[in-house]
Amino acid sequence: MDLGIAGRRALVCAASKGLGKACALALAREGVDVTLTARSADALEAAAAEIRAATGVTVSTAVGDIATEEGRAAALAACPAPDILINNAGGPPPGDFHDWEREDWIRALDANMLAPILLIKATVDGMIERRFGRIVNITSAAVKAPIPILGLSNGARAGLTGFVAGLSRQTVRHNVTINNLLPGPFETDRLRKTMEGGAKAAGRSIDEEMEARRQTNPSGRFGDPAEFGAACAFLCSAHAGYMTGQNVLMDGGAYAGTL
Ligand code: NAP
Which of 5, 124, 239, 240 has its CB surrounded by the most CB atoms within 10 Å? Predict the structure, then answer.
C-alpha cells in the first residue's frame, strides 16, 4: 500500500535506537524526510547514516534531551514545521513509590507527559493551517494495564493519554490526528535493561530471563521494532485521517481483556 506521505517532513524524538528509530526508518521508507533526536551524538549520527543509506531521504539530526526546553528548541530548529510528529523519550526507572520524591515525579512528567504536550503545542497550529498533521505518541502497554513497579511511567503516561483524548477530537476536523501507540515487550536495549532485575532475582542470565519472558507472552516472542515502525507509519499515512484519539496496543496478545 502506498501510504501517501512521500515528501512529508517528520520530527521523530528519541530516535537513535529502539522504537523511535524503527518509526523513523518506516517513515523514511515511505519517502518522508526525517529529523531524529537523541542525547548522544554518536549513536544519533550512526542511526541517521543508516536511514539515509537505506532510503535516500533527507535525514537531519538534533542532539539534546527532549525533556528539556533546550532539547525541544534544538529539535524544532532542525525541523520547524513538521507534518508528522512522533513523541518519544526514555521511560522512567522502576521502583517503589515510597522512595519517590517530588523531583522524581517531576522528571517523569517532564519526559513522558510535558515534553510531548509542549511539542504538540509548538507544531499543531501549523499542521492545522496546512490541513495535514499526524501525531503519534509512543506510550506503553502500562497505560492499559499498569505495571506496579513502573508507577512513575503509569502516572505520567496516563496524564498524556487524558490530554490527548480531548485535543485529538478538536484537531481531526482539520485532518490532524493524534494517536498513541502502546508497546508491550519489544526487543530493544530498554527491554534488555528492564530484564536485569528479574534475571538477578531468579539467579539466571539475562538471555535465560529473556527467553523465559518470551514464553509467557501469548505470541511466544517479543515484538520486532520493525513491526512497531510499520504500525506507526500507517497511523501517519494519508489513509488514517479518520482515526484519532486512539490507544493502539501492540503486545502480542498479553493484555487479556476483550476491549
Ligand atoms: P531504547 O531502545 O532504550 O531507545 C531509547 C531511545 O531514546 C534512544 O535513542 C535514546 O538515545 C533516546 N532517548 C532516551 N531518552 C531521551 C531523552 N530524554 N531525550 C532524547 N532522546 C532520548 O528504548 P525503547 O525500547 O525504544 O523505548 C522507547 C519508549 O517506549 C520508552 O519510553 C519506553 O519506556 C517505552 N516502552 C518500551 C517498551 C519495550 O519493550 N521496548 C515497552 C513499553 C514501553 P539517548 O540515550 O542517546 O538519548
Answer: 5
Which pairing describes strands 247-250 and 176-183: parallel, antiparallel, or unpaired? Answer: parallel
Distance from C-alpha of 84 to C-alpha of 92, rounded to nearest angstrom: 25
Which residue out of 39, 69, 144, 209 has the highest number of ligand 1 atoms within 8 Å of its CB and is therefore the one to mutate? 39
Predicted confidence (pLDDT) per residue in 46-101, tens digit: 999 999 999 999 999 999 999 999 999 999 999 999 999 999 999 999 999 999 99
Q: Whose CA is nearest to atom 22 of ligand 1?
A: 14
Residue (of 90, 73, 74) closest to 16 by Cα position = 90
Burial-class residue 43 by CB neighbours within 10 Å (0-12, 13-18, 19+). Answer: middle
- pTM, whole model, 2 decimals? 0.98
User: What single string gives the DSSP state of each residue in 134-148?
Assistant: EEEEE--GGGTS--G
Round to whole Å and give the CA distance between 142 and 15. Answer: 21
